[in-house]
Amino acid sequence: MPTAVVLLGRQAAALGTDLERLGLETAASVDTASADRVFVVGVGPDAQAALLHGTRDGVTGVVGIDGRPPVEEARAGAFRAPVLAIVAEADEGDAYAFAKALTNHGVLNETVVYDEVERGFLGTHERATADVWKLLRRFIGVPAPA
Known about the structure:
The chain is an alpha/beta fold. The chain has one domain (3-140): Alpha/Beta hydrolase fold, catalytic domain (Rossmann fold, 3-Layer(aba) Sandwich), CATH 3.40.50.1820. It is built from 6 helices and 6 strands. It has helices spanning 9-13, 16-21, 47-52, 71-75, 92-104, 126-140; strands at residues 3-8, 25-27, 37-43, 61-65, 83-88, 109-114. Strands 2-1-3-4-5-6 form a 6-stranded parallel sheet, sandwiched between helices. The longest helix has 15 residues, at 126-140.
């Protein structure tokens, strides 16, 4: 089953080459993706927009990295797609409220909070960045490169 990843924003777009090396298609939008499985990824200021794609049909899963999650939409039961939310310690409260709301509405989700890690960690915090790649590959269903 072919898999496509829609990368929202400049920071997520920087992940494109590495994702393509894993055999994934990168697409400009959900509507232009030609794959059977479509994931949306956003980083930093674009994380919330990526997560909100989980409220629409045609999306296999959404990933928000280092951004504030849309708690109210989750509380309203708007989400359909599985969610991976990865945040810095400063966003811990919102992240756990988001996860609780998704769980209450039966939405598959995983929330990871990096304690003692500042916002803007992707690419600057070695341990967190390596872990993000592992989580992202697992969520999308791509094995680690040999």
